[in-house]
Amino acid sequence: MNKLAELVGEALQNIWTNMLRSLLTMLGLIIGVGAVIAILAVGDSTTKSVINILSPYSLASAFIFPKAQQPDPLLAAIRYSDAQRVKRLVPDAADVLPVMSLPMETRVNHQDKTVRVVSAGVGQGFDTTPLAEGRLFNDQDLSAHRRVAILSAQARADLLGDSVDPIGQFVRLNGSDFEVVGVKAQPISGGLLGGNTSGLITVYIPYTIIPQLGYTYVFGLSVVAPDTASLTAVSDKAIAALKKLHGERAQYEERDIKQLSDGILRVFGILTGVISVIASISLVVGGVGIMNIMLVSVTERTREIGIRKAIGATRGDILVQFFIEALLICLIGGLIGLLLGVALAEVVIHLWIKQLTPNLVSFAWAPIIAVSVLFAGGVGVLFGTYPAVRASYLNPIEALRYE
Amino acid sequence: MSSAWRGDGALEQPVVYMEQVSKTYAIGNIKVPALRGVSFSVAPGEYVAVMGPSGSGKSTLMNLIGCLDKPTTGLYKLDGVDVSAQSDQALAAIRLKKLGFVFQGFNLLPRTSALRNVALPLFYQGDRNREAKAAKVLEKVGLRERAYHRPAELSGGEQQRVAIARALINDPSVVLADEPTGNLDSVTAEGIMGLFQQLNDEGHTIIMVTHDDDIARHAKRIIRLRDGLVVDDAPVELRTLVNARS
Predict the structure, then answer these.
(1) pLDDT, tens digit, for every residue of A329-362?
(2) Contact residues on chain B for A313, CB-CB shorter than 8 A
(3) How many domains are there within chain B?
(4) CATH value at residue B126
């Protein structure tokens, strides 16, 4: 142990003495590790942020709607009444609701404003953003076709103003008044999907009002599964039920948040993969550079090796000495790369990823440190072994004669 | 069989015993004989100079005695142990425990202090107390104050003293010196030879390669080589010895 500590000390001294050369040697590795770390950190942060963005939406519900391209669009069109029928045909589903999303006109301060009106049922539904005030819709709201509304945080601010107690206020949508019963909290994330991207503000109304507003056809159906795992099975059954009702030629597609998040994450995954390949090329190049310098160092120190061997150092002693030096160069390079990579990641995350989501989730340190140590150590082992072996096999007589 | 063939070492087991040792180098397809059957032995406490013109095989002989190389044929016993066919690893261990080298070019590690240069063999032995021991040996060669100087900060004579201290630290069976004064001026050389004399007086066995008659005269016995053979092996006259000491 003592011997090892001393070899480490001696190697550090050697690296320090040849500072500039050591740094140049490490450069490839620094860039490689830095790139890998930056990608990992940005990827990790992005993945978590995407999951964060999607977290207000239920993972247990799917949206089913007619495909845009199909032989007979009229045949496939989903009716308000289909929700009830599908529910009867698919007893596994926790709920099947008609989904409608309409732009409606309202007036605020004598100015016309367009709001997005979205149908909703009892309970949380698809958008699980918690309530800030008031309540969700209940069974009475639905069965009595009450004209009640839940405002998004943005809608409350734009339509009523923050100083007014919103509960019990009325908002006028396409000429009829809706009583505000609840206000949603500020969504914990926006940007990519959230609230206000189209400039529209969202107001939720009970879906049972849809027929009263004069609509027979709806956008689609919201199918709620008892749990996330059974979602695919339940939505497949719902599509089968729709086909039974509309005919086999009718075609439907299904969207759910898991699909969406999987899609986004897959894109990031591919990006990460591509850049990782480039980074690993840089690691190999860096490793070759280190091997090159170690070979030069072995040649330069041939006489030293000769002295050590003459004195009685074994092949193993010499091997360990040079191996430790290569490994240390790599680990120091890895450390510098780690710091640079993290710095780069912070810049990218704050300049770019932050645009995507205001609620940024930072990356985890542990895997990043592990990866950099692993990469740097791996390069050290891979490219430090050969020069060390070569040093250890030097003939002491020839080495001593070396000028 | 291990008794020395020289009479004066007959009672003790020789430190170095060589019997018909030859060494042939292969340079491509050509075989170059460097030693062609050399026999002699060195008893404990002897002080031997090996002389001969360049190409006589004295360097080869030194490498063999120093266990840096193996003989092609013949028997070499160091301290009664046959080392003529040992593995490289075993030879390294023998060098570590039984041999001390002093070179013409000093061969100190340049970035390392005198003290740690001296302690180096004990480092490979895994001796935890090595720096204290090294300090003692440095004191013996008169360099206690220079312990923390690096070789570049020492004069040639001082560097050679450090090298001698390094050769002594493992209490070797034999100290091998290869032209130890070759890089030194005559005054400094005399000092170094005085040190060798002192070591020999204390009982150290010394074998020294040199081409300089004045230096060789400090030894008690001179082995002359020519064309890979021992051509002369005789004690140095007492008169020369006395002159050298005065």
Answers:
(1) 999 999 999 999 999 988 988 887 777 666 677 7
(2) 92, 96, 124
(3) 1
(4) 3.40.50.300
